[in-house]
């Protein structure tokens, strides 16, 4: 009875009734059947509300149970820490020092490659130039020899030739150069197993240098010296072949036939196959030229041996 | 041998200095010209040839 009374009081509070407590007690005592039905409905409502309150309490307990979740958060936090640790370890591998070192090594290798490539290109270019230079100078030529017959590169093939372009009226340079040429030939032939070299004199003064005159002129220097002359057209052609510059000098009024021919002072070395091999200027001495020619001859023979080996 | 002195005397009687100087004058320009002609060909050495001629004219030769 007391419990029912306490419940009634609580329900009264919920119903928001302003009547005092004793009034309710009196009402309970004098209750009719109709009034009893009303109480039952009130009780049901109260029970429902209590159920609701209990549910909310359960939810609260669930919320209070949230502290149990930290272990899951801990795992999550551990995952973060592990990721950070891994990142830190990787950063030690990929630091600035390593990057700079790699670039330095790579750059050095590239520079070395470019340098080597440049050297090779330079060598090829030099070789190309030398080949081109050789190809342009020399070639087939033919002039009148001291016996009055046409002769030239064809007949002289198989011999090393040392050629000089001058003229018989040349006062100083030509005799000196021809003597030098003859001396070179003598120096080379004086040694053992020497390769014979034929000295050749070609006149660039066709107007005055006749066959007889050239013959006499050459015989004064050496019996081995072969002289050549020809018509103006023939001489000009040969001079052009060997890039020899020549032009008639000043003529004096007294004697029209007295003039000096200006020409390049250069000696030419021709190999047995008739190809231009080398040239020597005015400044070089006989001994120097002889040594160079010997080296050239040895190299030429070595190359021929290689070519023979290739054939076989 | 006797022919040579005769030739030299003839040359001397005419114009010994000019003859000697003609082939030996202007060695610098001549050397450069010769090197150019042998290496590049006469067609490409016109300037040097003219330079040598100018030098010869300056030396008193009629070219």
Automatic annotation (TrEMBL), chain A:
<comment type="subunit">
    <text>Homodimer.</text>
</comment>
<comment type="function">
    <text>Copper metallochaperone essential for the synthesis and maturation of cytochrome c oxidase subunit II (MT-CO2/COX2) by facilitating the incorporation of copper into the Cu(A) site of MT-CO2/COX2.</text>
</comment>
<feature type="transmembrane region" description="Helical">
    <location>
        <begin position="98"/>
        <end position="116"/>
    </location>
</feature>
<comment type="similarity">
    <text>Belongs to the SCO1/2 family.</text>
</comment>
<dbReference type="GO" id="GO:0005507">
    <property type="term" value="F:copper ion binding"/>
</dbReference>
<keyword id="KW-0812">Transmembrane</keyword>
<keyword id="KW-1133">Transmembrane helix</keyword>
<keyword id="KW-1015">Disulfide bond</keyword>
<dbReference type="GO" id="GO:0033617">
    <property type="term" value="P:mitochondrial respiratory chain complex IV assembly"/>
</dbReference>
<dbReference type="InterPro" id="IPR003782">
    <property type="entry name" value="SCO1/SenC"/>
</dbReference>
<feature type="binding site">
    <location>
        <position position="174"/>
    </location>
    <ligand>
        <name>Cu cation</name>
    </ligand>
</feature>
<feature type="disulfide bond" description="Redox-active">
    <location>
        <begin position="170"/>
        <end position="174"/>
    </location>
</feature>
<dbReference type="GO" id="GO:0005743">
    <property type="term" value="C:mitochondrial inner membrane"/>
</dbReference>
<dbReference type="GO" id="GO:0006878">
    <property type="term" value="P:intracellular copper ion homeostasis"/>
</dbReference>
<keyword id="KW-0496">Mitochondrion</keyword>
<dbReference type="Pfam" id="PF02630">
    <property type="entry name" value="SCO1-SenC"/>
</dbReference>
<keyword id="KW-0479">Metal-binding</keyword>
<dbReference type="InterPro" id="IPR036249">
    <property type="entry name" value="Thioredoxin-like_sf"/>
</dbReference>
<dbReference type="GO" id="GO:0016531">
    <property type="term" value="F:copper chaperone activity"/>
</dbReference>
<keyword id="KW-0143">Chaperone</keyword>
<keyword id="KW-0472">Membrane</keyword>
<protein>
    <submittedName>
        <fullName>Thioredoxin domain-containing protein</fullName>
    </submittedName>
</protein>
From TrEMBL, chain B:
<keyword id="KW-0186">Copper</keyword>
<protein>
    <recommendedName>
        <fullName>Cytochrome c oxidase copper chaperone</fullName>
    </recommendedName>
</protein>
<keyword id="KW-0479">Metal-binding</keyword>
<dbReference type="Pfam" id="PF05051">
    <property type="entry name" value="COX17"/>
</dbReference>
<dbReference type="InterPro" id="IPR009069">
    <property type="entry name" value="Cys_alpha_HP_mot_SF"/>
</dbReference>
<keyword id="KW-1015">Disulfide bond</keyword>
<keyword id="KW-0143">Chaperone</keyword>
<comment type="similarity">
    <text>Belongs to the COX17 family.</text>
</comment>
<keyword id="KW-0963">Cytoplasm</keyword>
<keyword id="KW-0496">Mitochondrion</keyword>
<keyword id="KW-0007">Acetylation</keyword>
<dbReference type="GO" id="GO:0033617">
    <property type="term" value="P:mitochondrial respiratory chain complex IV assembly"/>
</dbReference>
<comment type="function">
    <text>Copper metallochaperone essential for the assembly of the mitochondrial respiratory chain complex IV (CIV), also known as cytochrome c oxidase. Binds two copper ions and delivers them to the metallochaperone SCO1 which transports the copper ions to the Cu(A) site on the cytochrome c oxidase subunit II (MT-CO2/COX2).</text>
</comment>
<dbReference type="InterPro" id="IPR007745">
    <property type="entry name" value="Cyt_c_oxidase_Cu-chaperone"/>
</dbReference>
<comment type="subunit">
    <text>Interacts with COA1. Interacts with the chaperone CHCHD4; this is important for correct folding and the formation of disulfide bonds that stabilize the structure.</text>
</comment>
<dbReference type="GO" id="GO:0005507">
    <property type="term" value="F:copper ion binding"/>
</dbReference>
<dbReference type="GO" id="GO:0005758">
    <property type="term" value="C:mitochondrial intermembrane space"/>
</dbReference>
<dbReference type="GO" id="GO:0016531">
    <property type="term" value="F:copper chaperone activity"/>
</dbReference>
<feature type="binding site">
    <location>
        <position position="24"/>
    </location>
    <ligand>
        <name>Cu cation</name>
    </ligand>
</feature>
<feature type="binding site">
    <location>
        <position position="23"/>
    </location>
    <ligand>
        <name>Cu cation</name>
    </ligand>
</feature>
């Amino acid at each position: 009875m007391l419990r029912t009374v306490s419940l009634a009081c609580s329900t009264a509070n919920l119903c928001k009734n302003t009547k005092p407590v004793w009034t309710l007690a009196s009402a309970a005592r004098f209750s009719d059947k109709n009034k009893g039905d009303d109480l039952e409905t009130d009780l049901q409502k109260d029970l429902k509300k209590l159920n609701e309150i209990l549910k909310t309490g359960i939810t609260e307990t669930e919320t209070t149970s949230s502290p149990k979740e930290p272990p899951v958060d801990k795992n999550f936090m551990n995952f973060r820490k592990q990721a950070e640790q891994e990142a830190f370890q990787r950063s030690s591998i990929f630091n600035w020092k390593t990057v700079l070192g790699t670039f330095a090594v790579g750059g050095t290798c590239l520079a070395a490659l470019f340098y080597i490539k440049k050297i090779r290109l330079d060598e090829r270019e030099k070789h190309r130039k030398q080949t081109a230079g050789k190809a342009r100078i020399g070639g087939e030529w033919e002039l009148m020899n001291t016996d009055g017959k046409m002769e030239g590169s064809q007949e002289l093939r198989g011999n090393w030739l040392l050629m000089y372009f001058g003229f018989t009226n040349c006062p100083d340079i030509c005799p000196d150069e021809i003597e030098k040429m003859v001396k070179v030939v003598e120096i080379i032939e004086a040694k053992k197993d020497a390769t014979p070299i034929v000295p050749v004199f070609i006149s660039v003064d066709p107007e005055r240098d006749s066959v007889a005159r050239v013959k006499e002129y050459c015989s004064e220097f050496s019996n081995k010296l072969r002289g050549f002359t020809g018509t103006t057209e023939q001489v000009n052609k040969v001079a052009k072949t060997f890039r020899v510059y020549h032009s008639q000098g000043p003529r004096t009024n007294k004697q029209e036939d007295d003039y000096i021919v200006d020409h390049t002072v250069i000696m030419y070395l021709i190999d047995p196959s008739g190809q231009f091999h080398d040239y020597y200027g005015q400044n070089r001495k006989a001994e120097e030229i002889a040594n160079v020619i010997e080296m050239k001859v040895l190299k030429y023979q070595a190359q021929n041996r290689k070519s023979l080996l290739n054939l076989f | 041998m006797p022919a040579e002195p005769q030739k030299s005397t003839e040359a001397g009687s005419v114009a010994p200095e000019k003859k000697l100087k003609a082939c030996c004058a202007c060695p610098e320009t001549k050397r450069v010209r010769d090197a150019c002609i042998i290496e590049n060909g006469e067609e490409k050495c016109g300037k040097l040839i003219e330079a040598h001629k100018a030098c010869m004219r300056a030396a008193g030769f009629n070219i």
